[in-house]
Request: fold
Amino acid sequence: MATPEVQLSPPSPQVVERREPSREWKTFWSNPLAWIGVIVLTLIVLFSFVGPVFYHVSAYAPNLGAALSPPNAQYPLGSDSLGRDNLIRLMIGGQLSLEVGFAAALVTMVIGVIYGLISGFVGGATDVILMRIVDILYAIPQLFFLLFLDSVFKPNAVLLVFVIALFSWFGVARLVRGEVLSLKTRDYVEAARALGSSNMRIMIRHLLPNVMGVVVVSTTLQVANAILTVAGLSFLGLGLPPPTPNWGQMLSDSMTYMFQNAWWLIYPPGFAILFVELCVNFIGVALNQAYDPRLRR
Amino acid sequence: MVKYIIYRLIQAIPAMIGITIIGFFLVHIVPGGPAQAMLGAKATPQKIAEINRIYGLNKPIVVQYGIWMWQLLHGNLGTSYFYNQSVWSLIAINMPRTLGIVGVSIVIAHVCSVILGSMQAYWKNTVFDYLVTTVTYFFYAMPFFWLGIIMVLIFSVDLNWFPSGGLSNPLNPNPGVGSWIAHSTLPIVTLVIGTIAQWAQYMRTSMDETLIQDYIRTARSKGLGESVVVMKHALRNSILPLITLLGFALPNLFAGALFVEVVFNYPGMGLLFWNAALQRDYPIILGIVVLTGMLTIVGNLLADLLYGLIDPRIKYT
Reply:
């Protein structure tokens, strides 16, 4: 019975695509922090993923004669205790650290958005129960659980992504739920409902695009968190199994040679993590300013 | 007020039960129990069954949970599989050490963040402000454990000012407080720097928002000195968000303490947990998870109550 009205609504996708760059997009790029973050992060990604194409050295072949040598012509960043080239290990190590960090943030986002959307949209007793569960999970010391699960499962990269996501989606869920609670009373949601849209359609077509702003901001910060978590777990010897290096594990190894003053093993992976963290945080701050109308100038 | 505290305590009960359930089942569902970890390569099905019987691991998991919970309600966290000591006695030894460094760090970090953040907001957009923001950002992005390693490298290996780790000098049979201070300085400094980096920015934002309020202008136009306006009128209000943060910061600080304890080989709860996780010592793992969970809930409750003490506008009903 509602079919004629539904056909009246114009095909919206084409309209969306011809729109000029949004205000958020412009605000984001007018921020110097965003530029620094994006450019440096791109350089680090290129360093890790394209670097090994140009720098042809084995990351695994040991050379015990040249163990623990400081930076020199043959080893631009020195060598580790097995005489392996530190520069190529830094490049390869970056791949794993970045991949796991970004993937974990993505999975976190998906779980959090679905959970938050349902909780906020359905409301009532479902909402109360779902949010009580989040409250409980919040009180759990997550690092302790991660550490324990890691020691039991000896995870590969894919499993690690899901384990990290399992312990970090609550923040996103709470955020999305809050947004949905305020959005679902808006007129356009009422209008969509009056036109006969199903709950599913309202959630996906009307609510989801409008919560994406806060979600993008929090996902960016989640990337920073996840990279730190991976590094931390690897540092504790429980992240990802050798021989594939990653930055956290390189730092963990370097700790053994702290007293030999092997600074070339200690500083490069640390600065790599530091720069990625800085860049991701810069991008997060810039995105936040772009999406939060109170922070817009 | 009393009613509110009771209400909040009742509210905390489901959370506590939730933590015990999630913790217990997660720990017991994983493959390869403690018997496997204890016996290693010598494990035979008979020996595993024997050990499982001794520790009651062959009973249905719900019954095991019931037994464990009953003991917990009597304040008994069980006996460690490996140390052959009650978990309580192990925690009683290690907990004060961790609380020592975490507690001192919280106090120092809080005072420093309040001072630093307020100064930044007061001299907003000056060279000083930008400089402090840059430095705090830098430390904020730094992993705790890397900061710890650098501390050892600089202050212990290069300058030889402080010992690189441990709780006290092993050669000294009767170490005093001085020895503890020397050994815990670097761990505390590491925790403090990491925490200030997070809190100072909150304080800056909060003070910044307070300083443009009407009542601050009123105080100034009454002719009050700048120091009275900032220290008495603005500080009390702008300190509020930091108190809430304190409640949330507890799990973070425990996590930070874990890394710091591993780097400095400082025998506290973190190191105890780390070793227990590697050995699958279930009672210790569960005991620490439940205790830290409880501390987090109590921390949040205390933060809420402190909030009311400082801000008289908040009434508990």
Q: What stands out?
A: Confidence is low (pLDDT under 50) at residues 1-8 of chain A. Chain A touches chain B through 40 residues (CB under 8 Å).
